[in-house]
Design brief:
The protein is α/β, with parallel strands linked by helices. The chain is built from nine helices and ten strands. A ten-stranded mixed sheet has the order 3-2-1-4-5-10-9-6-7-8, sandwiched between helices. One of its GO terms (molecular function) is ATP binding.
């Protein structure tokens, strides 16, 4: 039996969007769906037991209704209510499944960064790819964008993105970003032309090596190569704005460390422009 798509939801608009995204993918790729909600926040105070019981009952009724609605469309759907910390519970529930889908409260460039921390912690802890869906209407874009930096986790992201693009019949847009050394001097430094050319050439080589052999595995896949100067998360999200899916690796850092400095996946998730998968 194929592994299922697990979707962790709350009764919010972000949860609704995550469930809708997961249901579409389950229908398209003939996957089962497991809908999960986590009841947390218990402190052990007097009177709490009844509150938890009522919350569990209402959550169970809600999930049951959602599962029944989706079964009516032909999907295989199960649901479960768990207790405790959402990060550990969703990580455990999805450990042996195909992927985990969650919602984000991010609503667009004019709304500031995502405010919740659970999504970023879940994406960091999960053992399977995590798809984070923004809380806004995502236009039907074109292509699957993947960030490439030459690291092992970047290679995993490329494999995931290529498989998704191939199944969706979408082009794969592979992007490597190069960033000159940041200067904090009052007067701007003029970078030597040879230095800039070397950075760009190194980025091109990294991208070429990372994509080598991909056309043999996916002969019908259109691959678009992008080498850009800038900051990785900004460039990736800029391309993702018009894409169907974006894919980033978690904790990626290759031989050319400045291609992906810091937690780029974290920064992408706080300003994500489309459904975004985090792969380790």
């Amino acid at each position: 039996m194929n592994a299922r798509i697990v979707v962790g939801i709350e009764q919010t608009s972000a949860g609704e969007r995550a469930l809708a995204w997961a249901a579409r993918r389950a229908a398209q790729f003939h996957r089962g769906l497991l809908i999960v909600s986590v009841v947390g926040g218990a402190l052990g105070v007097v009177g709490e037991k009844q509150v938890l019981a009522d919350t569990e009952r209402l959550t169970e009724d809600w999930l049951s209704a959602e599962a029944e609605r989706l079964r009516a469309t032909g999907l295989s759907v199960e649901h479960a209510v768990f207790h405790g910390d959402p990060v550990s519970q969703l990580t455990a529930a999805s450990a042996d499944e195909e992927m985990l889908v969650i919602g984000s409260d991010y609503r667009g460039p004019d709304e500031g960064p995502a405010r919740g921390v659970h999504g970023i912690r879940i994406a960091s802890a999960a053992k399977v790819p995590v798809v984070v869906v923004p809380d806004r209407d995502v236009a039907e874009g074109t292509g699957v964008v993947v960030g490439v930096d030459g690291s092992p986790v970047s290679e995993a992201a490329i494999r995931f993105a290529a498989a998704e693009a191939d199944r969706l019949g979408e082009p794969l847009i592979a992007v490597t970003v190069w960033t000159p050394i940041t200067t904090h001097h009052r007067n701007s430094i003029v970078y030597p032309e040879l230095y800039i050319e070397s950075l760009e050439k190194a980025a091109q080589e990294t991208l070429a090596v990372s994509l080598a052999g991909l056309s043999q595995d996916y002969p019908d896949l259109e691959i678009r190569r992008e080498v850009r100067r800038g900051y990785p998360s900004a460039v990736i999200n800029g391309l993702a704005a018009d894409a169907r899916l974006a894919v980033v690796g978690s904790r990626g850092r290759g031989a050319f460390a400045r291609f992906l400095l810091g937690s780029i996946s974290h920064e992408v998730l706080t300003h994500l422009r489309t459904a975004t998968a985090v792969v380790r």
